[in-house]
């Protein structure tokens, strides 16, 4: 719409009047649409056009007043609700897709053409406290138990022969006729295989190795992390030890063997937990520093001179021979911890990282191979999974740090027992005094 402007006073008033008429018509057409605030209109007729505010626009023309209410900004609110609802639906859809994918993968693995893949999957998840249910979703308990039994390490009968271990008796002993060996030496080695990475600690003097414990055990007690056991004892190294009662996030207050079986703990020649008449799968150290493996009662262990003991398993190497792994597939890939001893008395402490992008984990056969390669005469599996890690202290101060990967989602777990390595000048006196 074009107007011919007369720059006389009367012409200016006419333009303003027409502009007001146009605004009134435009407002009536747009009253149901979002309103854009109009800037203040300055005029030579302040008596006819009043001040324009952000909330209301008041136009006075020929003594007639029209008030226009600014509409609420509901468009932004509706847009925010729409965005949130779409984000929520997208997240739920993604979550559902992940669950469906996991279910399909579970069904394919458990009922697919490869029994070897099925067995490996079952063995891997059943060794965890959180994911064991994945094996029984689509398989019966009988089938799962059969897979575990068919692929387990065959139990070795009898006990280890301590005469196969030649213990060092001086600061510089001969090593098979070669150069003298420092009795106080400790060597840390990086271990790597196809599916795993880890660390192996070789402690030349076996009397530096002992079992760390909390102050007491019981339903109302709690364990201590391996890291804190190292710090509390001012030890040089530490790895996790035996099992503890665990239904998902155990607190280490009750020691156990494999699969939450009854536990035993002997420390400094004293039975701290367990029954003297019950038989256990003992992993012990006698007062000469020899690693002793075998099924025995707590009283038999004490009578034989064992001063440090816990129970777990399975045994990996006994009297120089690798234990047999049943079935065509070895145990699943998981974090692992093991202890062994060479013929010269040196202790082997092994931790394998698992459930990591760079290290899926190791099998029992992997542990046996590592122990045999490093000369183990006897070796046994310790508690693994989320409990597995190695802690190292400083030579000049008591500030231990974890030097491997801890698989636990909650950080270092509270343990019932740990395997500790004392400093060279702090060898425990139980080896000298006995019971």
Helix count, per DSSP? 9
Number of domains: 3
What helical percentage do the residues reach? 25-40%
What would you call the shape? elongated
C-alpha Rg (nearest Å) = 38 Å
Mean pLDDT: 80
Strand order of the largest sheet: 5-6-20-19-21-17-18
What share of residues are in beta strands? Answer: 25-35%
Structural class: alpha+beta
In terms of per-residue confidence, which ranges show pLDDT below 50 for 5 or more consecutive residues?
40-66
| Tally of strands | 25
Determine the N-to-C terminus distance: 112 Å
Q: What does the largest sheet look like?
A: 7 strands, antiparallel
Descriptive overview:
The chain is an alpha+beta fold and 435 residues long. The protein has three domains: 9-69, no CATH class; 81-150, no CATH class; 162-433, no CATH class. The chain has nine helices and 25 strands. The protein has helices spanning 9-29, 74-111, 115-125, 133-136, 141-150, 226-233, 298-303, 364-373, 430-433; strands at 56-61, 64-69, 172-174, 180-182, 186-192, 197-203, 209-212, 224-225, 237-240, 243-244, 255-256, 265-267, 270-273, 279-286, 291-297, 306-311, 315-318, 321-322, 336-342, 347-352, 376-382, 390-392, 401-402, 414-415, 418-421. The strands form seven sheets. Strands 5-6-20-19-21-17-18 form a seven-stranded antiparallel β-sheet, with helices on one face. Strand 14 (279-286) and strand 15 form a beta hairpin. It is elongated, with a radius of gyration of 38 Å. Mean pLDDT is 80; it is low at 40-66.
Map the helices and strands.
Elements: H1 9-29, E1 56-61, E2 64-69, H2 74-111, H3 115-125, H4 133-136, H5 141-150, E3 172-174, E4 180-182, E5 186-192, E6 197-203, E7 209-212, E8 224-225, H6 226-233, E9 237-240, E10 243-244, E11 255-256, E12 265-267, E13 270-273, E14 279-286, E15 291-297, H7 298-303, E16 306-311, E17 315-318, E18 321-322, E19 336-342, E20 347-352, H8 364-373, E21 376-382, E22 390-392, E23 401-402, E24 414-415, E25 418-421, H9 430-433
Antiparallel strand pairs: 1-2, 3-4, 5-6, 6-20, 7-25, 8-24, 9-22, 9-25, 10-11, 12-13, 12-16, 14-15, 14-16, 17-18, 17-21, 19-20, 19-21, 22-23
